[in-house]
Design a protein that fits this description.
Elements: E1 2-9, H1 22-37, E2 40-50, H2 61-68, E3 78-81, H3 91-103, E4 107-110, E5 115-117, H4 122-155, E6 167-173, E7 179-186, H5 188-202, H6 207-216, H7 234-241, E8 249-252, E9 255-258, E10 264-268, E11 275-278, H8 287-302, E12 305-306, E13 312-314, E14 330-332, E15 339-346, E16 349-356, H9 357-362, E17 373-374, H10 375-389, H11 393-407, H12 416-438, H13 443-472, H14 477-494, H15 499-509, E18 514-519, E19 534-538, E20 541-542, E21 565-566
Length: about 575
């Protein structure tokens, strides 16, 4: 008779040799039990889960392999375990697993009690229910004991998890040599990297920029996991900048990793459940560094362009986004250079002006535009004119009429049947060429031919998918108008708001920079910029991003030439 063995241990035994592990002992004793019974245990039918909770059933590889062998017919006749709790410590799941084993014709034995678990009568089923209930209660008690121990360690400032970048974990032992607990000590080499992160963040750099800067400098990084390349990633930067440990504060119990069923499902707990422990000896960044970085993160988060329903329309393109409305979004109409901001004392305050960067940095020979535009008045006028001339219901009606007219134009004819026939012919050719390789014919030329056919096939399939997507995008004029008006009002509401968000609206409306040209009162360019008292600011606007996701589903490119445009 062929027997299978299943062994499981809830906690992973790190630092213990394989022959001393609990699962190893379970397997050895199960094999000895099988020999006494005269059964044969094949290595292929030894199923092990080491370091996995008994409440887990969907992510236990050994358990899943065991259950998958039951159909269509189990390759073994008996299953040996130390006790039923090895299958799991959740009453309903264990009962169902045992039923599957028994109905598949597998006899289940527990070597600790030398008994067979059968489900032939109501009494046996009741006894199983009581046994599995006791196992589940033991799991709950163990969970509570572990939780209490972790809370005690957290309150004492001891390590309750793994390693943390910037610190070394030191094992503290008792006088008799037994392990007591683990403490953190600042690693100065890694701490210097952490301080640089906070300084770069406070200076206005985003997570990606910080990661690039550290990787370019060859800064020390955490050890890579799961085969990933070594180096910093934006997600790691974000995690460090949000971790209070670096300011000398330990916070425990912020999240729960498992739900009441024992399944891994991380949820966040409210602050009233957090355990906060001051740890000034673990401080790496000063309070000023921490506050500056958090203020910068909050400022960047507030600058995201969102609709009334929270829909994200955009965010600043650079981590060092300008705090002035037109810097980087406008240029001088005389030399083509950018505009910058100049300030000077104006009574008890400072007055700010937009000026041509080339004139003020390189002199009048490079650009004669010495005009200074008062920033508050210029910003207000630009916002006002964009709202009146571009983001207005009147203009939207004109653009909608033209857009829907072009959208209703008949599609260019396409022979879909012919395209599908060609795809099938290409599939046959690729199959013949692949068979030729298997027969040992010249490989290089055949592989090149396969690449050509596959490229053609991808192009044909792509054309069919685009046409099908356009056909599925059935929209009505009323629906387009309703959604476009709603988005228009949202963008109009963002324009007078924060400068960072207003800049995003301008960036989405104008593909090119706005142009500021010294002008006469009638709007004509001034012959002498020094004598010009006016400035004419112009730009070419487009509604294409306003219509994104309205006429076609997101992820499908708009048809060639479909770009509703308005020139103010």
């Amino acid at each position: 008779m062929i027997a299978a063995v299943y062994a499981r241990k809830s906690t992973e035994q790190t630092g213990v040799s394989d022959d001393q592990k609990s699962v190893t002992r379970q397997i050895e004793q199960a094999r000895a039990y099988a020999r006494r019974k005269g059964w044969t245990v094949e290595d292929a039918h030894v199923y092990v889960d080491d370091g996995i909770s008994g409440a887990e059933f969907a992510t236990r590889p050994g358990f899943l392999r065991l259950m998958n062998t039951l159909k269509p017919k189990a390759p073994f006749q008996t299953l040996i375990m130390s006790e039923e709790s090895r299958l799991g410590r959740e009453q309903i799941e264990v009962s169902y697993a045992l039923k599957q084993l028994v109905t598949a014709g597998v006899r289940v034995f527990c070597y600790l009690t030398d008994t067979e678990r059968t489900l032939n009568s109501p009494i046996e089923k009741v006894m199983l229910a009581l046994s599995t209930m006791a196992d589940e209660m033991e799991r709950e008690k163990a969970r509570q004991r572990t939780r209490d121990a972790m809370i005690r360690k957290a309150k004492a400032g001891h390590v309750t998890g793994g390693a943390c970048f910037g610190y070394d974990n030191l094992v503290v032992t008792l006088p008799d040599g037994r392990r007591s607990h683990v403490e953190r000590r600042v690693n100065e080499e890694e701490a210097a990297v952490v301080r640089r992160m906070f300084d770069l963040c406070a200076a206005g750099h985003g997570f990606k920029q910080i990661a690039y800067a550290l990787n370019d400098a060859g800064a020390r990084a955490p050890s890579p996991q799961r085969g990933r390349p070594a180096g910093w990633a934006p997600s790691s930067i974000r995690e460090i900048l949000h971790r209070p440990l670096y300011r000398g504060e330990i916070i425990y119990n912020r999240s729960q990793k498992c739900d009441t069923w024992g399944q891994r499902h991380q949820t966040h707990r409210g602050e009233e459940h957090w355990i906060r422990v001051p740890a000034p000896e673990l401080r790496i960044v000063t309070e000023a560094q921490w506050a500056a970085a958090q203020a910068r993160i909050a400022e960047a988060r507030a600058a995201y362009m969102r609709g009334t329903n929270g829909q994200l329309y955009g965010h600043p393109e650079r981590g060092t986004e300008s705090k002035y409305l037109l810097v980087g979004l406008s240029r001088c109409g005389v030399c083509g250079g950018g505009l910058s901001v100049k300030s000077r004392s104006h009574g008890r305050h400072r007055a700010f002006y937009y000026v041509c960067t080339a004139y003020h940095l390189r002199g009048p020979k490079v650009c004669p535009n010495c005009q200074e535009l008062a920033m508050p008045e210029t910003d207000a006028r630009v916002r006002e004119r964009i709202g009146e001339q571009i983001l207005s219901p009147r203009v939207l009606e004109r653009v909608l009429a033209r857009t829907l007219e072009r959208w209703a134009e008949p599609e260019a004819p396409i022979d879909e049947a012919g395209v599908r026939h060609e795809i099938e012919a290409l599939d046959r050719k690729i199959g013949h060429l692949t068979a030729a390789i298997a027969d040992g014919e010249a490989v290089a030329s055949i592989v090149e031919a396969i690449k050509v056919h596959e490229a053609r096939r991808r192009a044909l399939v792509g054309s069919l998918e685009v046409r099908q997507a356009q056909r599925r995008a059935v929209v009505t004029a009323g629906d387009v108008e309703r959604r476009a008006r709603k988005r228009l009002e949202e963008w109009r509401g963002m324009l007078p708001g924060q400068t960072a968000i207003a800049r995003q609206v301008i960036r989405k409306l104008f593909d090119e920079r706005l142009v500021s040209t010294p002008s006469e009162a009638d709007g004509t360019p001034a012959e002498d910029p020094k004598a010009a008292a006016w400035a004419r600011i112009t730009g070419e606007a487009t509604y294409s991003k306003l219509f994104l996701g309205i006429l076609l589903p997101r992820g499908v490119a708009s048809p060639t030439g479909f770009e509703p445009v308005f020139w103010p």
